[in-house]
Amino acid sequence: MQKPHTESRSTKQPSTPDLVGSADALERHDDLWIEVIRKMDETYSDLVRYQVELEEKNAALEAAHQFISSVLASMTDVLIVCDINGRIEEVNPALESLTGVPEEGLIGRPFQSLLTTECLELASGFAETIRNNAVHDCELTLRAAQEDVPLAVNCSSRYDSRGRLVGMVLIGRPVGELRRAYEALNRAHDELKQAQSQLISAEKMASLGRLVAGVAHELNNPISFVYGNVHALARYRKRLRTYCDAVDASDPPESLTALKAELRIERLLDDLDPLIRGTLEGAERVRDVVQDLRRFSSGQKGEHTGFDLVHVIETAVRWVTKGSHPGAQVETQLPERVDICGHAGQIHQVVMNLVQNALDAIKGVDGARVSIRLETLTHADRLVAGPAQAGFSAVRLCVEDNGPGIPEPDLLKIFDPFFTTKPVGQGTGLGLSISYGIVADHGGRLMAENRAEGGARLTMELPA
Fold first, then answer.
1. From CA 127, how far away is CA 110, in angstroms rounded?
2. What value does the mean pLDDT take over residues 377-403?
3. What's the rounded mean pLDDT across residues 307-314?
4. d(CA 288, CA 307)
5. CA atoms of 246 and 271, how far apart (whole Å)
6. pLDDT at position 344
7. Which residues, in sequence order, are CB contacts of 349 under 8 Å at separation 6+?
8. Is 445 in contact with 396 (CB distance < 8 Å)?
9. pLDDT tens across 261-289, in order?
10. Higher pLDDT, 419 or 298
């Protein structure tokens, strides 16, 4: 049986439309792969760009973090970041250094736990206060590792990205540094005022010295007149006495005798002698005062010469006690005369300073007393160098008082320039410093100590 003709034709010769369809399918398949590859390239490019951007942002974030860390580390002020309940979230190294506690031990603690008890009530109100106003310059005391540290604290609000209040930031500056700076400034100001006062005082003393020298020079002439005239009166008195005796011996008439009795000539002649002696004594005292004034006004000038130290001490004590401390009880133990070589005016200034300080120290003290003692020392007793003269080699002047004494820390500082325990305006702190220099220039020593029975003792030793 023969197969149909149609089947044989279809098997041997495929139709043209089937071939065209297969080609189209292959072409679409290739296009899909190209599109996939293109999408993959775009995705890879986006990934590379995102990676670059991410690395740049990470670098910027790391730089910002490093910058903030360096700023926090360099701050000397205390920084505390808290949540709204006062729990610590972040601190800076300054707080760690003060408290001695690392950051890990501070995170999560209430910031009030770092403060002293008396500050807790004030600090507890910060959370409510900062909702309306910031806190400025509130003084709190921090419990530090060594000792409590007062802080001047500013507290402000902290908000999140949505503007909600999430906490507070506290910044505290140690007040001790400010106080030390203010104290140093005050000390410098006081020293400046004292220096200014000393300059004014020095100018006044220079003017006073010129005035005293001029007055002393002007007084010399009238004193010389008085002194010379009184000596002449003493001679005239002798002549009058001789004449009156001669008249009495010549049997004068009764009228002349009556006139002599009426005028009391005899009593007048008897009074002339004490009157002349008193006038001479007064003139000599004025002359001595003028010499002392001229010696004092000479200041640092002049060569060293011999002088009586006892006379200088007596003059200095008299000037101080009668000038500013009338009625002060001053006991002196002085020999009749002690001759030394130096500048009398400078030693006079030293003695006045020592006596003045002793009298100032006993103000308001019951039974106040100043004792002044001058001793001559042998070679074995002396503390200063110098050749032996007339049986002694040095002199020691002790000025003692029964006041409160000198505080032990001040004993080594009382001879420093501008150091004084007196209120501002009552002392320049230069008296003992200048005196120390004067005594040293004379080859001696000036020393200060407290007496066992109370009070202070200042000792001046000079080579004979």
1. 12
2. 66
3. 89
4. 14
5. 20
6. 82
7. 296, 434, 435, 438
8. no
9. 887 888 887 888 888 888 877 777 777 66
10. 419
What residue has token string 């005050």? 186
Distance from the first to the final alpha carbon of the chain: 174
Strand pairing class (370-377; 339-342): unpaired
Tokens of 65: 């973090």
Other CB atoms within 10 Å distance of the CB of residue 306: 9
Structure tokens at 256: 């002349």
Residues 166, 158 contacting (CB under 8 angstroms): yes
Distance CA 145, CA 101 (A): 8
Compute the mean pLDDT over every residue in the chain, rounded to the nearest whole number.
79
Confidence of residue 18 (pLDDT cuts 50, 70, 90): low
Lowest pLDDT segment from 21-35, 181-195, 386-400 = 386-400
Distance separating alpha carbons of residues 101 and 146, to the nearest angstrom: 12
**104 Cβ partners below 8 Å, 6+ apart?**
none
**pLDDT score for 210:** 72
Task: Enter the tokens of residue 336.
Answer: 């009749």
Task: Specify the length of the chain in residues.
Answer: 464
Instruction: Work out the number of other CB atoms within 10 angstroms of the CB of residue 220.
Output: 15
Give the bridge partners for 306, in sequence order.
Answer: 341
- pLDDT at residue 398 is higher than 90: yes
CA distance 151 to 10: 107
| Dihedral pair phi/psi, residue 459, rounded to 5° | -120, 130
Q: Has residue 226 got a pLDDT over 60? A: yes
Secondary structure string (H, E, C) spanning the chain: CCCCHHHHHHHHCCCHHHHHHHHHHHHHHHHHHHHHHHHHHHHHHHHHHHHHHHHHHHHHHHHHHHHHHHHHHHCCCEEEEEECCCEEEEECHHHHHHHCCCHHHHCCCEHHHHECHHHHHHHHCHHHHCCCCCEEEEEEEECCCCCCEEEEEEEEEEECCCCCEEEEEEEEEEHHHHHHHHHHHHHHHHHHHHHHHHHHHHHHHHHHHHHHHHHHHHHHHHHHHHHHHHHHHHHHHHHHHHHHHHHHHCCCCHHHHHHHHHHCHHHHHHHHHHHHHHHHHHHHHHHHHHHHHHHHHCCCCCCCEEEEHHHHHHHHHHHHHHHCCCCCCEEEECCCCCEEEECHHHHHHHHHHHHHHHHHHCCCCCCCCEEEEEEEECCCCCCCCCCCECCECEEEEEEEECCCCCCHHHCCCCCCCCCCCCCCCCCCCCHHHHHHHHHHHCCCEEEEEECCCCCEEEEEEEEC
Beta bridge partners of 173: 152
